[in-house]
Design brief:
This protein is an alpha+beta fold. The chain has helices at residues 5-8, 54-68, 85-93, and strands spanning 13-20, 23-32, 37-45, 73-79, 97-98, 111-117.
């Protein structure tokens, strides 16, 4: 899910951005849920950079960072509507599968929860 500016500055959250030619192409964050479990947060690609590999590049980076930190599980929450199908397809290509709500999340018809081991 999306984190506002203050939440991105919270302890346990690392935020990254991708720039191309001084333009913001995309961003993403990793939130530490505990010593073994992290959550992918705020994955976004700027509209003018869609379908150019920005999200895959960010996801590679977040997965590498999670492994470096010794995490053994990554989870995420994304939307369930058709607009989120490209993101869901990307996560599936990276081995994420649907799961029950985690952390403080509750079942929600507008949300899809996914997880994978590292």
């Amino acid at each position: 899910s999306f984190l506002d500016f203050d939440a991105l500055r919270a302890d346990g959250v690392t935020f990254w951005s991708i720039h191309r030619d001084n333009e913001l192409a995309g961003c993403g964050a990793l939130k530490m849920l505990d010593a073994q479990h992290g959550e992918i947060k705020s994955m976004r690609t700027a509209e003018s950079f869609l379908r150019q590999g920005v999200a895959a590049h960010m996801l590679d980076h977040i997965i590498d960072a999670a492994r470096t930190r010794g995490l053994d599980r990554l989870s995420l929450e994304t939307g369930s509507s058709g607009a989120f199908e490209p993101a869901t397809a990307l996560y599936r290509r990276y081995g994420f599968t649907e799961c029950e709500p985690f952390a403080d999340y509750r079942r929600d018809p507008f949300s899809r929860f996914m997880t994978r081991t590292l």
